Amino acid sequence: MESPFASWMDRFSIEHPDQAPEKDPADALMSSFAQKGYEHEDALEAAFIEQGLNVVKIEGESSDEKHANTLTAMRQGADVIVQARLELPPFGGYADFLIKVRREAESSSPSKNKSNLGDWHYEVWDTKLANKLKPTFVIQLCCYAQMLESIQGCLPEFITVALGNGENERLRTSDYFYYYQTLKASFLHDHSNYSPDNRPDPADSKN
34, 78, 155, 180: which could form a disulfide with 142 (CB 3.0–4.6 Å)? Predict the structure, then answer.
């Protein structure tokens, strides 16, 4: 989303770390931001617990174990799942929160959001320190939503960003999903043709 060059450089630095520019040393300010991010997530988790919801935090020694534990928690119908491991190869990641939604509580038709899990499905929430919504947040959540769809058999109707100012931005997934799919297809196409000797021109970036 940032640029083809940035995406190429990310991969190049992973596969050829000896040739990539040296990373900046650890920064106290960035460490502070990371800590505040954890605190923001912990505060939302505590709020769900205070509401009396059944909150399950995913743990495990490996991503495979965490993925298996996530599936178990979803099938058992936990109200809130924290740090859920989601996968849809070649993508995988950790969603801050999966929130249970019961079908009878929805305003949409009964046939909509039919889930493999039962009379519930999950929506994904992510915490961000920013006070305003950014496009990259939405793309990330659409990716998680597609991973969820592969498990529960339905695309979550909404995605939510819990911002640093305490506001929750709830967005209709379908408003952004087709753009996400186009961006994903472009990303996969570029990387299927990746070559360390064929660097994109930074000047071609739209940003």
Answer: 180
How many helices and strands (H and E) does the chain possess? Answer: 5, 6
Is pLDDT above 60 for 106?
no
Mean pLDDT across 92-107: 83
Cα–Cα–Cα angle for 155, 136, 64, rounded to 5 degrees: 60
What is the edge-to-edge ordering of all strands in the sheet holding 91-102?
Answer: 55-57, 80-88, 91-102, 120-127, 158-162, 168-172
Look at the chain and count its residues. 207
Rounded-to-integer distance, Cα 124 and Cα 139, Å: 12
Beta bridge partners of 88: 91
Distance of CA 96 to the CA centre of its chain: 8
What is the structure's pLDDT at 37? 63
**Residue 58 one-letter amino acid:** I
Rounded Cα distance between 119 and 138, Å, is 26
Q: Do strands 55-57 and 158-162 pair parallel, antiparallel, or not at all (unpaired)? A: unpaired
β-pairing verdict for 168-172 and 55-57: unpaired
Task: Give the mean model confidence (pLDDT) for residues 148-171.
Answer: 94
How many angstroms separate the Cα of 65 from the Cα of each of 69, 84, 141, 144? 6, 11, 22, 18
Q: Is the dihedral of CA 113, 116, 117, 122 positive or negative?
A: negative
